[in-house]
Write a structure and sequence with these properties.
single chain, 7-stranded mixed beta sheet, alpha/beta, 15% strand
């Protein structure tokens, strides 16, 4: 008889965002006339930049000719995109980056989950709490997380690093030794950022302990403060201890197109092996690459017109974040984030539970959020709101919440 991966049976309930969607659908079915505004799932709403659309149209036309047709592309990404990324996202900020260190993929979520393939199952993994569920769930699936402790809402083998109001939602390195460390700044879900000194402490810790930092910077385009690093590789020493994940999903509205990239420096080695080579081997075996048409669209983001147009979309969402943050603060609610990130971390009033507040807002205001408890034990008592909706709907949602409370 075929044996299954027993680790899947240990996973509690369903994936957080699937559960949120299920509850919204159930409420909609029970209340057919409800006009629900979703500030829950972080999906973009603004159309693709005209420069991106035009580049993709040209690529489609190329594919319709014998001379321009392309079949299987390189699993690591086409050179034109890898070079554009290296020059614009790194070298322009004074960070050396070899295009061979850049691996184009179909999403930061995929890479954050799949990167575990190149690490052994006996590594000690540290995660922020609250945390993007993919980091936790994929390690549980691989057998690194131990047993799920339902009473505590956590896994027995993971090192949880509380990200709470007292530490500005950005933890310091743990006292215990961690082999793999997941960091996300600007943070999902809290919207917090980390300064250079904070990141330098992490880099020094990782190099001293032989750890590897898995740095998710999918939201770096939303950073507004000049002194906040956009990349872990702006920090001296990071090339020997860090892997970085980035995405075009939020930067350029590619949630429906799927394009991202992961950076694995040549200098990064563990157990005498190059992690760049290991990730290349993994991708060459398990990944067929991102479509040529999509990569041409992604490359257009780096043209002068593309950069201007995508910045306009980001500014649109940043304005939404300000509307949410300021509007709820006026109502006497405590909010965090929303300055360097598209997420607002709202503290529930009166010590109300996260799911309780979710149900209350869905019923009284017809506004959907994401319960903070779904991101980990330290997320209890908060909900995450996203600024990725339409401007009119966002403003209306804020007024509904204020009226409901």
């Amino acid at each position: 008889m075929a044996k299954i991966n027993q680790n899947y049976l240990k996973l509690p309930g369903s994936y957080l965002f699937s559960e949120v969607a299920r509850r919204i659908s159930a409420y909609s079915a029970a209340h057919p006339g409800a006009n629900i505004i979703r500030l829950s799932i972080g999906d973009v709403t603004q159309p693709l930049a005209p420069s991106v659309v035009e580049a993709m149209r040209r690529a489609v036309d190329e594919m319709g000719t014998a001379e321009g047709f392309r079949g299987y592309g390189p699993e690591q990404g086409y050179d034109f995109l890898r070079q554009a990324i290296a020059q614009n996202d790194y070298q322009a900020r004074g960070v050396h980056m070899d295009p061979r260190e850049i691996f184009v993929s179909d999403g930061a979520k995929s890479d954050c989950g799949n990167i575990g393939d190149i690490f052994g199952t006996d590594n000690v993994v540290a995660v922020c709490d609250p945390v993007y569920p993919v980091y936790v769930d994929t390690n549980a699936m691989a057998g690194r997380a131990g047993e799920y402790q339902e009473r505590l809402g956590r896994w027995s083998r993971l090192v949880y690093m509380p990200c709470v109001e007292e530490n500005g939602f950005a933890p310091a390195p743990p006292k215990e030794k961690a082999d793999i460390i997941y960091l996300c700044f600007p943070n999902n879900p809290t919207g917090a950022v980390a300064g250079r000194e904070q990141l330098k402490a992490w880099v020094d810790y990782a190099n001293a302990n032989g750890s590897v930092i898995l740095y998710d910077s999918a939201y770096e385009a939303f950073i507004t403060q000049e002194d906040i690093p956009h990349s872990i590789f702006e920090i001296e020493g990071a090339r020997t201890c860090a892997i970085e994940f980035r995405s075009f999903s939020k930067t350029a509205g590619f949630t429906g197109n799927r394009c991202a990239y992961t950076v694995v420096p040549m200098e990064l080695e563990r157990d005498g092996a190059s992690l760049n080579a290991l990730w290349n081997r993994r991708q060459s075996t398990k990944f067929n690459g991102v479509p040529y048409v999509v990569q041409r669209g992604a490359a257009a983001v780096y043209t002068p017109q593309g950069r201007e147009q995508t910045r306009a979309a980001i500014a649109y969402y940043q304005k939404n974040a300000q509307v949410i943050r300021d509007g709820l603060a006026d109502a006497g609610l405590q909010t965090f984030g929303g300055v360097n990130a598209p997420y607002i971390w709202l503290k529930t009033p009166g010590g109300m539970g996260s799911w309780e507040f979710f149900d209350l807002m869905l019923d009284r205001a017809n506004v959907a959020s994401t319960p903070g408890a779904g991101f980990g034990p330290s997320g209890e008592g908060y909900v995450r709101l996203t600024a990725f909706g339409g401007a009119q709907a966002t403003a209306e949602a804020v007024e509904r919440i204020k009226s409901a409370l």
